[in-house]
Hints:
Chain A is mainly beta.
Amino acid sequence: MRTLKEVQAGDTVTVVKFMGAGPLRRRLMDMGLTRGTSVYVRKVAPLGDPIEVRVRGYELSLRKSEAEGIVVDAVPAEAGQQTGAGEGSR
Amino acid sequence: MKIALAGNPNCGKTTMFNGLTGSTQFIGNWPGVTVEHKEGRLLSHRDVVVTDLPGIYSLSPYSLEEVISRNYLLNEDPGAIIDLVDATNLERNLYLTTQVLELGVPVVLALNMIDVVHRSGQRIDGVELGEMLGCAVVETSALKGAGCSEAAEMALTLAQQSLAPSSQQIFSAPVEAALAAIGEALGATFDQARARWYAVKLFERDEQTLDVLQLTEQQRSQLEQIVAPVERQLGDDSETIITNERYDYIARVVDTCAERPAVEMTLSDKIDRVVTNRILAIPIFVIVIFGMYFASVTSIGALSVTNWVNDKLFGTWITNGATSGLHAVHAAGWLDSLIVNGIINGVGTVLGFVPQMLVLFFCLAILEDCGYMARVAFIMDRIFRKFGLSGKSFIPIMVGTGCGVPAIMATRTIENERDRRMTIMLTTFMPCTAKTVIIAMITTTFFPHSFLIAPAMYFLGMAVIVCSAIGLKKTRYFGGETAPFVMELPPYRVPSPKGVMIHTWERSRMFIIKAGTIIFAVVVAVWFFSNFNVSLQLVTIQHSMLADFGRAVTTVFAPLGFATWKATVATITALMAKESGIATLATLNGVADPDRTRAVMQGIGTMFVPISAFSFMILNLFDPPCIVAMATTGREMNSRKWTTIAIGYQVVLGYSMAFITYQLGSFLFYGAAFRTGQMIAIAVLALMAFLVLRPASAQEPLVATGDTEMGAA
Lengths: 90, 713
């Protein structure tokens, strides 16, 4: 089971589920990180935390401690089609 | 009639609001919180009030801004809502829209920044979008002023007909069935005009809604019997189900109505690659910050303009003009003094900050509008989170080395209320330029060879901020988990001159009006007390009520090593403006011109021994900053309780530090005996260390940015 925290910069994954509940999870979901969404991990901040991801066509930053609660999976074959978020740019 | 303006942050809401209301705005705060509340009258229909709601992503019950917005929309009964949507980021923006549409209030969806979309060659079918969502759609470009008045007219028309959006079945069959069942079982408990909203919120088990509706035990179990089976069937909790299905629905809508932009490397991406680059990010950051600091605090802002306003405009021209004018009409001496020394001086003190403020707000507006401010937080978060502040606290603290007043105002960029309060409270511990006058005078007089003292004061200031933050974080007031850092990094944009001007003016105006009135009153009061004796005769400061008061309370400062009435009066006037503390010492020692450094030094030299002078300096560096900064604190905290906490903390901390300095300093370096004073000093020091080092106490559960006061809202 991999969490978003462990994903290397430059990789794209899809959201599987959230661990824990409450305001933080709701906030992450409100920002568009729902199940099946593809997330492109864009970079890690210069001091090693937080991380920047591309989701639903915009850039979002979150701390590694927050990314740890998001279980992710490798992108399925029909990458990003479901949400069409686009894997971002290279 | 009322119209509400809702939308995500960075979608152009401020610009639209300005376009609609022009100069009729009223800016304040929502009751009891630091969230800005803006209202204005529609330019074309003066009887229509437009309310600009805080920029939000959702109507969840967790964040302060969101709760304020939903309470307004539910309780204040706006005639219509203009929902501003950033058309370049349709998917996430429509998420709020789907919630707004459920409120049973007429909605006009403004597809903003449509010009940017067209320029990039993308196409959005507004008509189709309106049909799918069931609401009116207007294409706008707030920046160019296009479509805004159409949106407002449309909102008025809909409001007159109370034409709420047609209800759309956006969720999956099991959920829709459950919503219908909730409507049937519990429909009597809520307003039928907002039936959809309440049904969805009850399905989500939204805390706030459950509180407001006050369901009976039986009704609650009825609700459970409807919700729980759906959760089991879909394998998720109800909140997750609703959020997921909203986004699924939006994805379908966007697929139908809009062509997706080709994914390519945009200019924004290229800029970001450089600006937040692993190696370049910090150097670029330092350059940007120093550039801003240089512009607002040292060069344009302070040295030339502020000093010009203070010295030339108010110091010479207006003063001389007024003096000769008053002489010409043979005005009484006291009136002359009131106008020149009291009012002109007082107003001048306030207005002297204005140019500096304008430059600073101009720089901040550019940094915010171009998207860099969010990156500042992104880059600095790692460091500042360690002691419980936000990455964005860095800018106020930096600005604080120039002047505490703009520093406090600069905290407006911090969204999290708790972080913002703490930053307001702590940022003035950085020695500002006025405090350097005190540092310079004391060190050159008493410690002429220790050139390390001045820089050490900056490190001490930083250390006080860090330790205070760590300590305060463990108290009940500032405790709780660190606020989440889930933040949008908006695309880099060339800031529009119009937008920057609006931001700059909005913030400066507030400072001039609000801080100006309080400070004006206080300055006149101090003028009165320092120029009159108890029998209301005009006297010099030595014989004034202020001096009498100083003599009466000198004992308060005895434990700090300077029980002289002169030092006491100087400490009081230093609360007006830190640099006037030294000017007062000069006057009291019979030196007319405070610029005659040597004479001032001689005077001060007779008043203190080195350690008491040092303690005097510490007190004046860490007690509450000047009256302007205190007034700004009051205005920004927007709560008597929090202003009292902030100023009270500064009083206690400044006094304790001076006490420890004097008591332990005289024992360690000047051979004083170890007595009760020293014992108390050690006890105080130990208490401080304990407060910083102790494990965090039992904390309130995390309620995102909202706090307990919101319960009443």
